[in-house]
């Protein structure tokens, strides 16, 4: 099994923060009810505002928990890589005003892989160079829902630039291999020449294990250097 190097997960932090905000909303609603007799109009206004805020927070909490569940499932998947691979999760690289939040970084003898995971259901269409793609989802009753989403291919390519610059500044002359994994029931109709797009879990492990380039071979010392640099983030 691959070595999973635990990191502080921003989703867990966001979930904890949202729970605290939700608790504060409950308290504000309770106080507004207690003050109803003292200042009826003002307390009703506070109560309605607090309730609306709580509804938004509950929705945000559900989305965050769904995302965390998905990331944990991907970690369990990556753990199935051979033991000479090391896996980092939730890597945050900052370069001046620019930053990259990378879901997973996998370090092995055959390359340094960065992987963005998307928990999207539906059919995605568009072009690689588009800033936004179109997601189409069919509801339970046959309704057709269409939504624009930011192009994840551009997102992972931005992460690659950030990682490559970080490696260069760390004295490591290697380029990251970008991967985009849709972990939910998703059909991707967008072709990419620069990013490996994967929609099946088994393909993740297979692609990483089989990946070969003549100019890419990370010796044990280089792998250690990469791991040490990532651990300092």
TrEMBL record:
Keywords: Membrane, Transmembrane, Transmembrane helix. InterPro entries: NERD. Pfam families: NERD. PROSITE patterns: NERD (PS50965). The chain crosses the membrane at residues 21-36. Residues 66-186 form the NERD domain. It comes from the Bacteria. This is NERD domain-containing protein. It comes from Anaerotalea alkaliphila. The lineage of its organism: Bacteria, Bacillati, Bacillota, Clostridia, Eubacteriales.
